[in-house]
Design a protein that fits this description.
- The protein is of the alpha+beta class.
- The chain has 6 helices and 4 strands, in the order H-H-H-H-E-E-H-H-E-E.
- It has a two-stranded antiparallel ribbon with strand order 1-2. The chain has a two-stranded antiparallel sheet with strand order 3-4.
- Helix 2 crosses helix 3.
- The protein is globular, with a radius of gyration of 19 Å.
Length: 160
């Protein structure tokens, strides 16, 4: 038997919560203002039992919270918590990736900033403001070992 243990990291732990199709589609809908179970189900196509499990998981994980809107029968709306709102760049990034790299991407809603311009994701250095576009990243593992990824093509977000 091998004693190989998978690398523990926040990416893996986050994927445990949101790294599954239905969870991401639920978050997409709530980001777009769809808050009721039946509407989320209609827009995602998720089976009822799967949707129930994902909503409970996202609530338990702190990304969503329920707000009762009807006493009898009890009915709830789902709202993003601050932790859920922090996933917004992830969803925008997934949308951008799909529009850029899928062979025939379906029509997608636009995300506009309050100034009216399309929103794109961009990762920048917190200290100097330089964008991270296909390089410039040095990884430092928990054991202190550093490394750099292999050279990659520069990728820039396209404004649509």
């Amino acid at each position: 038997m091998s004693d190989i243990q998978p690398r523990a990291c926040p990416i893996a732990d986050t994927l445990d919560l949101v790294g599954e199709r239905w969870s991401l589609l639920v978050l997409r809908e709530v980001f777009m203002g769809v808050r009721r179970f039946a509407d989320i189900q209609a827009n995602t196509g998720a089976p009822r039992d799967v949707l129930t499990k994902r909503l409970r998981s996202l609530e338990a994980g702190g990304a969503l919270e329920r707000h009762r809107y009807l006493e009898r029968p009890p009915r709830f709306e789902y709202h993003l918590t601050p932790a859920g709102q922090a996933l917004e760049p992830v969803l925008i990034g997934l949308r951008e990736w799909g529009l850029r790299y899928l062979p025939d991407p379906p029509p997608a809603p636009r995300f506009l900033h309050t100034c009216g311009a399309d929103v794109v994701t961009r990762v920048v250095c917190d200290a100097c403001g330089e964008p991270l576009e296909g390089g410039g990243l040095v990884t430092v593992r928990e054991d202190g070992v550093t490394g750099t990824p292999p050279p990659a093509a520069r990728v820039t977000a396209v404004r649509r």
